[in-house]
Amino acid sequence: MQSSKKQNKTIAKQRIIKLFSLVEKKAFEKDFELADRYIHLARKISMKYLVPIPSNLKKKYCKHCYSYLQPSVNSTTRINNGRIIIFCQNCGKYTRIPFKQKK
Question: Rounded to an integer, what is the distance from CA 57 to the centroid of its chain?
């Protein structure tokens, strides 16, 4: 029984990664509705199987409206006071991500 749970989690993680690759492809083709739907599906898989979305993929969608963020198309990115600030133009909310500068 344990091996099937582990197997389900690995399959879920692979599906999440595959969905995000499809998201990037659809966003490049300017089909944002389908891209947002894929993000919704990836989040549902993540919650169902308790698999975290990788951190590099988490930064690619808005935490408030769950839409794909493509810089200068539907989001604005800037750096201020040691933080990356991403403004979503769909919902009008900000996401602030701290970072450490190398000395």
Answer: 5
- For residue 5, CA distances in Å to 29, 48, 54 come to 36, 12, 19
**Measured distance CA(11)–CA(86) in Å, rounded:** 31
Query: How far, in Å, CA of 3 to CA of 67, rounded?
Result: 34
From first CA to last CA, the distance across the chain in angstroms is 50
| CATH class of segment(s) 2-98 | mainly alpha
Determine the pLDDT at residue 3.
77
Q: Is residue 77 helix, strand or coil?
A: strand
In the chain, where the domains are located: 2-98
**What residue type is assigned to position 101 of the chain?**
Q
Q: What is the model's pTM?
A: 0.85
H or E stretch at 93: none
Contact 40, 67 (CB under 8 A): no
Q: Taking the alpha carbons of 58, 60, 64, 67 in that order, is the dihedral positive or negative?
A: negative
